[in-house]
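Field: sequence (string)
Field: structure_tokens (string)

Example rows 1 and 2, in order.
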Amino acid sequence: MNEPKQQTPIDVIPHPFPLNDASAADFDGPLFASVIEPDDNDFASIAQLQARLAEGPLTSVKLVKRCLARIAALNRRGPQLRAVIETNPDALHIAECLDTERARGVIRGPLHGIPVLLKDSIDTGDNLQTSAGSLALVGQPSPADAYLVQRLRAVGAIILGKANMSEWMGFRDWQAPYGWSSRGGQTQSALGKGWPVFGSSAGSAVAVCAGLAPVAVGTETNGSLMGPAYMNQVVGLRPTQGLISTSGLVPLSSRQDTPGPMARTVTDAALLLDAMFGLDRPEPAPAGAPDSLIDYASGLDAQALKGARLGYPSVTAQGGAMIEDPAFALLARRLESAGAKLVPVDFVFPPLMQTQLAVLRFDFKRELAHYLAGRPGIGPKTLADVIAFNAANPSPEGHGQGLLESAQALMFNEPFYSLLADSLRNQSRALIDTALQAHDLEALVDLPMGNLMGYGAQAGYPGLMVPAGRDDEGMLAGLYLAGGQWRDRALLALGYAFEQSGA
């Protein structure tokens, strides 16, 4: 299969990306003060919001109203970000109930009364649709909350609505642009006109970047959370696959799918992770998964980089010496100033892209059918039904469905599939594990959109994207951290220390 330029695999996308300076004069995102008068709560952290909620006069009702006001001003009007596909008609009522609890002295947790946006591939058993961006799935809402949504509600989070996304997790067609869905339209960047949003969790990232919600939940299969986090300068965590339950998510591949937090700070990402993590998940926990509750936010340590040995690829994704790359040199200086020891690693990256595409297509076809079987009140029950719907209802933009059709056509016998899938995971894990062990490393670091991002996703290992503002040439900067299985807490600590080093 030939892959068009705009959908180049994540591990070979050039870095860095220049901003569209021609549009800067009339574009004032992400604040958008020319469109809506700023409010102190628009970009406040969860801790700041909780302090204001405790002290008054801020209430959760006022906070939700403010989020809805920014959505009304920026989502379909003004810059037309189209980051939010639907808002929750019950959000204000939920906020009122949580305010009443607070007045009685009942605080469920750090997210009590905090609005959260969910990617449109996450089930909610309320009045919201769950469509994966596809008009084919519009109909009766899901009959039940995804497990992570149950957890969020239990700790007092307010489900504000659903975020737009690349339709079918970016698996509709090679030509369909990132952040586009037939239901939500094209998500636009809050950083500049024409600036790429990247990946299927684009709406979640743009919403957080533009202050439409304090935090959001995205999902990742291979770069669809990490990429948007970098492109929109927010924090994104891809947890170890299986750490957070995938029950109630529209699937692409159960071998790689994972939900993850998107936030403006590492602390807020850790708080959201804590809220989504639970031990009473409906599916069996993977081998080695934590068997007791872990407070990820309490593990953040501003001194975590001191003495930490961090490996980095000696060669960039484009073939040059990493240490000579200006963008990496900037990160290296900051890491070393914070006390880290950087160790070059001579990675040999196995060519796994075609293997992954085959595994994803095979997984998607059968796992989607299983998911649709639990969704009464919508027409499609198989991938073939979705393809037929799209054929009968073509998108106005003319986007095809080549990836869906290729998944439908793919046939494997089970032994051959298992061989491919196991090889994909095992080679990716060996790449990371060998580097960590051979060099006695705490973690790996890379440029955003570098080689390690894709292999980490294929391994099912955690990854953390931390924004770093602009480099010396005015281009977006960020740090990608990768770790071994179940090393999520350590990555968050390192990311927090990096974040604080630039404060």
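Row 2 begins here:
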Amino acid sequence: MSKFEYAKLADAVAAEIASGVLKPGDRLPPQRTFAYERKIATSTASRVYTELLRRGLVVGEVGRGTFISGEARRGAAATTEPRGARIDLEFNYPMLPAQSALISKSLEGLNRPEALELALRQATSTGTLALRKVAADYLTRQNNDWSPRPEQMVFTANGRQCIAAALAAVVPAGGRCGVEALTYPFIKGIAARLGVTLVPLAMDEHGVRPDAVQKAHREAHLSAIYVQPVIQNPLGITMPAARRADLLRVVEKLDLVIIEDAVYSFLDDEPPLAALAPDRCVVLDSLSKKVAPGLSLGFIVAPPRLRENVMAAVRSGGWTAAGFALAAAQQLMADGTAAELARLKRIDAQARQKIAVACLAGLEIQTNPKSYHLWLTLPSHWRSQTFVAAAARRDIALTPSTTFAASPGHAPNAVRLALAAPPIDQLEAALRTLAGMLGSTEEDFDLTE
């Protein structure tokens, strides 16, 4: 059989999906059965299934098999933009009722001609000295002995650009970066465009396992690992002190860089890994959650030895923030507005978690009481993709586990619920609807269009 035969077979299955012969939620036969039916080698069947996974036409669920994706007819494997669902439990951008008034008051001075003249100039990746000082002070954790220095600060337009710049700076094209087995989805696309291979690292209830880092590095050299040690997305895990110490010992021994995503850390008091290993960690943060997605700024706190590489990556990637965004962020941080919004959102997140726990009582959830999201493991009579499709019929947007799986075909049977966006009454109504749905079966819902 030619080396392109697997692609032709994948095209044939794709045509069956497009024509409706195979529908979202349909289960493909085991690979050995597929090979027998098509009179091909089992290795070729494996390549067919891998190609279907790559195209986003199917999803694999651990212990259950391979299913036609609920996104297959759209031709998309993962969520990319908000879909306009009436109740959004998919995207996690907290917006408080009073925050627009607070932000407006903070930015009043920016409409002065002399302020605008400075704000509208061409910006650099390091901003001004005044901005670096304000940002370093804003990120300082008074209770846990982490205080970045102004000369470490580098800025981008948002958090995703921070990830791209950090990866580009510390992982060469063709290199490997370890990531949590369930991780922030957008790093997958970023890594693919940079030519970086992501290596899934096994996790447990305390976060990424140090022995998994050692195993991955032993099999093929890693340049770095990307982790979220505080309120991990999607599982909500915050690494305890013992796990942090064990992980840092391994990273030091293997001489790896840690890309530490701290975007949700404002919701907790735990220190970053950088507090214990400042020369080993590149810390990433942004204002998108703390302030607003439409008024964001990305922060990279780089060790001195890596700062020039990070700055070069920001410049070459075109990820420099606009001058007005830098000026607005400086004002919000300097007058305490950003800190006050973060304080109010901590209260809001905990209130929403209490509602979620009450509405989903009796179901298998994993969460952090300080977090804006939770992980819901589905009962055996539901599959992740079909549950997401059924929820969408009720104008509720969710994220399936496949979106977070670093390795295609190895997603647990679960969904993530983002609690930040809906008004409280809509949030409670949506959660009660989902709990009621889980008491029914897939067969009770018509998921065809």
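free_text_note (row 2): DSSP finds 15 helices and 17 strands in the chain.
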